[in-house]
């Protein structure tokens, strides 16, 4: 079934990957901001040491369009310059999205960090996080910050792997110790191993519903957008199945 929800800050139905999960009973809405360093702010902590800021999915799909980039920049400027107003609008969008899903008898899911890595569990509005305001919504994101704390039960985080910098290995080790699911970008589907880092590799490109993945797994993804030409160590070639 096709869905199309458009809010001021979030959208569902316009993303080629998230729509793959529509038949699972969930509808995912995503918010896209400008990643990495914008207006003097870094919205993607660890992006530099993980070397993912150049092959970022910000440029994949519709992200190559100037109109899309301008829209993401406007939202990012709003987040930086008027955090309270931005969060109030986001809360309104989530209320509308929740109601939209209820009417269609489908479960709402949301990725707040489509192309950013903001610790939304630390941002409150009316003394509550968005996860507390919307316990019926399943929040989920990819992150390169393994030591995030106070993460609510309805906020699922998948750690993002990279071999680009030895400094980043500390984050990888933390993720392994915490038994987080780890997303690994492989060069293509053909070189995706059955095991990596001693853990079973599942195909993360079948859908985007990371909160349904088996625990303690490697989420295998293949390179897209500028990542296809990345050889920094963020995209994995010739993986050792260990």
Helix content: 10-25%
End-to-end gap:
40 Å
The number of strands is 13
**What's the shape?**
globular
Strand content: 15-25%
How many structurally independent domains? 1
The SS-based structural class is alpha/beta
Write the layout of secondary structure elements.
Elements (H helix, E strand, L loop, with lengths): L4 E2 L4 E2 L13 E5 L6 E2 L2 E2 L4 H4 L15 H16 L1 H21 L3 E5 L18 H4 L4 E6 L11 E6 L8 H9 L4 E5 L8 E2 L2 E5 L14 E5 L12 E2 L6
Parallel strand pairs: 3-6, 6-7, 7-8, 8-9, 9-12, 9-13, 11-12
Antiparallel strand pairs: 1-2, 2-3, 4-5, 10-11
Helix pairs in contact: 2-3
How would you summarize what this structure contains?
The protein has helices at about 45-50, 65-80, 85-105, 130-135, 170-175; strands spanning about 5, 10, 25-30, 35-40, 40, 105-110, 140-145, 155-160, 180-185, 195, 200-205, 220, 235. It has about 240 residues and is an alpha/beta fold. Strand 10 (about 195) and strand 11 form a beta hairpin.
How would you portray this structure in words?
The protein is an alpha/beta fold and 242 residues long. It has one domain (5-236). It is 22% helix and 20% strand. Strands 1, 2, 3, 6, 7, 8, 9, 10, 11, 12 and 13 form an 11-stranded mixed sheet that branches. The protein is globular and about 45 Å long.
What brief labels describe this structure?
242 residues, alpha/beta, 11-stranded mixed beta sheet, 13 strands, 20% strand
